[in-house]
Amino acid sequence: MPLNHEERLNKKKIKVIEIFSFLTGFAQAVMAYILSSYFKESLGTENFGIYYSVAYILVLVSLLNFHKILKKFGKSDVFFATFLAKIIILAFLATVAPSFFGAILLVLYIFMGSVNAVSLDSILESFSVDGKSGRIRGMHLMILDAGFLLGPILSTQLLEGFNFQVVFVASLIIDSAALLFMSFGLGKINEKFRQRETIINLLKKAFKRKNIMRIYYISFVCEFFYTLMIIYTPIYLLDLGVTWEKIGIIFTIMLIPFVVLPYPAGFLADKKWGEKKLLIAAIFIMGVSTFYIYFIHSTEIWIWALAMFATRIGASLIQTLRDSYFYKRIDGKDVDLIDFFRTAMPVAYILAPAVSVVALLFFPLKVMFLIVGIVVLSALYPAFRLVNNHCEADLSRTFKKNS
């Protein structure tokens, strides 16, 4: 299918978004791996998955109607409003001890952060072009994850020496700096969405495009992996007797592939192979290495760091390649399809905790690693059926053949 659509490349705006993403990646990482412990302390139970589900039901409903919101308010207004709301929620979290009220605030934080990320995604697509989609997405994710790499050490050190409120203050300071930078650097990018789509029509539009649905499922699997691994890995390690300080080291090593691999993966997808082969390899690596974690009984840092590092090799590749593949098939005006594609995350965050709630009624916590491994490997089937995007090498061969 020819992929003809209107595009415009704006390198200056992309650089602004990348710097912003570095700062927010840092802020997100400060929060990400302590959320489950905060919920556990606030609610007095490990079986708190329903709170994640509630947060992402709200996200799902918002994303299915997101094109309507953008139509009314525009991209930058939605972006800045949700980011400011996230900062206000952090300010409240910094003033309250772990409690039911704190858990509700955290649900709202997750909701605002997720909607904000989708609005930023739509803005980035407005400044991108298909021929460089892999490299643009790869560089963006690499810079985002470079910021993310710094977070676990800071948050675990703060939690080891202080409390959750200090962690929230740290994230608040970083996000506030990011908001100021973005306000001056991005300016008013208030392009509004013109199409009128009902949710039913949007779903019909997406389901007609088989490759969109295949990459959607792969994206869902990646988010399912993130959901249960982020929620339950810290709790499982703490139950084994691993300290927060050691967990910080493990998670920092674990995140290295996100800094090293995204740009090379995007480059190879654009230039040499397309996304399909790399996705198949990534899914296999992530699935098998997640299975392996179930059989680890040691508390040695290096064993856990190596195992988690292997899972993130696959995850970092999928995270880049799913975006590269998808965005080569749409453009910045396909806001409705972007919204649909990004529902993979809330759908995963609704279903995965629901699965975990049931599983934990009958099995020990570590069975989560087997469940995640099975779900990840199920993505191999749609990956093999993807129609590969043309890379520069393919276009060069076609040109030589016809000349």
Describe this structure in words.
With 403 residues, this protein is an all-alpha fold. It has a single domain, classed as MFS general substrate transporter like domains (Growth Hormone, Chain: A), CATH 1.20.1250. The chain has 20 helices and no strands.
CATH 2nd-level architecture: Up-down Bundle
CATH class assignment: Mainly Alpha
Q: How many extended strands?
A: 0
What distance lies between the first and last C-alpha atoms, to the nearest angstrom? 22 Å
**According to CATH, what is the topology?**
Growth Hormone, Chain: A
Question: What percentage of the residues does DSSP assign to strands (E)?
Answer: under 5%
Q: What's the helix-strand series? A: HHHHHHHHHHHHHHHHHHHH
Q: What is the rounded Rg? A: 20 Å
Shape label: globular
Summed up, what is this model?
With 403 residues, the chain is mainly alpha-helical. The protein is built from 20 helices and no strands.
Structure keywords:
single chain, Growth Hormone, Chain: A, mainly alpha, globular, 403 residues
SSE layout and pairing:
Layout: H1 11-32, H2 35-43, H3 49-64, H4 66-73, H5 75-93, H6 100-126, H7 133-161, H8 164-186, H9 199-207, H10 210-240, H11 244-254, H12 256-260, H13 262-273, H14 276-293, H15 301-327, H16 335-342, H17 344-362, H18 367-377, H19 380-385, H20 392-402
